[in-house]
Amino acid sequence: MAMVTSCWRDFGNSTGSSALELASVRPDWTISGRIVHIPESQNTATGSRFAVESSRTLSLATDVKIDIVTIFPEIAEAPLRSSIMGRAAESGAVAFAFHNLRDFTTDKHRQVDDAPFGGGPGMVMKPEPFFSAVEALRTENAKVILLTPQGTPFIQAKAVELSEEDHLIFLCGHYEGVDHRVVEALVDEEISIGDYVLTNGALAAAVVADALIRLIPGVLGDEKSAEVESFSGDGSRVEAPHYTRPAEFRGLEVPPVLLSGNHAAIEEWRLLMAEKRTREKRPDLL
Fold it and tell me: What is the pTM of this model?
């Protein structure tokens, strides 16, 4: 579910705006719990030159704000408006905003890239739109992150760290990369989701956002889920295998210990299996 950060500028910090206050200012907006629906025809960025191009919603009393700046906002938006991520937005645990980088250009062609100085293949993303976007979106507690193959590898510990931030702005690269002045002047941290190259950073932004949002208290149905899974704790092991009904399927049986009801024995088995699987599958973690 998309969220509009421009509204935060109109009404101040979203965590301090009640549905009643918003309804009194804009009675044409539909209030449902902590979600405000904004009609498609309206430009909610009052006093701003950046218009909202489609129907959006604004979540009240959010724990984390996430702005994603990309030339393909629909790519980042699709996975984050569904399932657990969508419910997290509806509950107010997180507020998403998906921004088209071209909306922050000033030329009639809405150009976001140009040929690299010094020659070479491909195109480089221009600095001006990124500067305009960050200057429009940045708040006092915002952390600006560039998704790039040159960044620090993204691991579970980093997801935990980012889940405790108040406001994250993800900048998504494309083509041959981003003008390095963006990194030098705007970016607080560069993150890579792996040693491979994607067609654009919007996919990486969605991956990082999903990993951190699920760690926000209340997002997962069972709080213990995030505590006992792979890479949790000290991040030194993967988790034990899981089984569910039926207890026997095509001659394949569930380990008897899991059916014993002996919780101490089950816990010991899971620890042993986690260590065994880590040695076999991810010895680099040991």
Answer: 0.76
Task: Provide the CA 204 distance to its chain's centre, in angstroms.
Answer: 9
68: β partners: 98, 170
Cα 226 to Cα 228: distance, rounded to the nearest angstrom: 6
Smallest Cα–Cα separation from 95: which of 79, 80, 73, 78? 80
DSSP per-residue letters across 169-195:
EEEE-BTT-B-HHHHHHT-SEEEESSS
What separation in angstroms does the CA of 178 have from each of 17, 110, 112, 146, 148? 36, 16, 10, 9, 9
> Are 4 and 97 within 8 A, CB to CB?
yes
Q: What is the pLDDT of residues 213-250, one digit of tens each?
A: 999 988 997 766 656 566 766 667 899 999 999 999 99
What whole-number distance in Å separates Cα of residue 70 and Cα of residue 79?
A: 15
Radius of gyration of the chain (CA): 22
First and final C-alpha spacing in the chain = 39
Query: pLDDT tens digit string along 143-192?
Result: 999 999 999 999 999 999 999 999 999 999 998 999 999 999 999 999 99
Place of tokens 């657990």: 84
Q: How far apart are CA 101 and CA 106, in angstroms?
A: 11
Residues 6+ apart with CB under 8 A from 101: 69, 70, 71, 112, 125, 129, 130, 133, 172
Q: Nearest 5°: CA angle at 101, between 37 and 118? A: 170
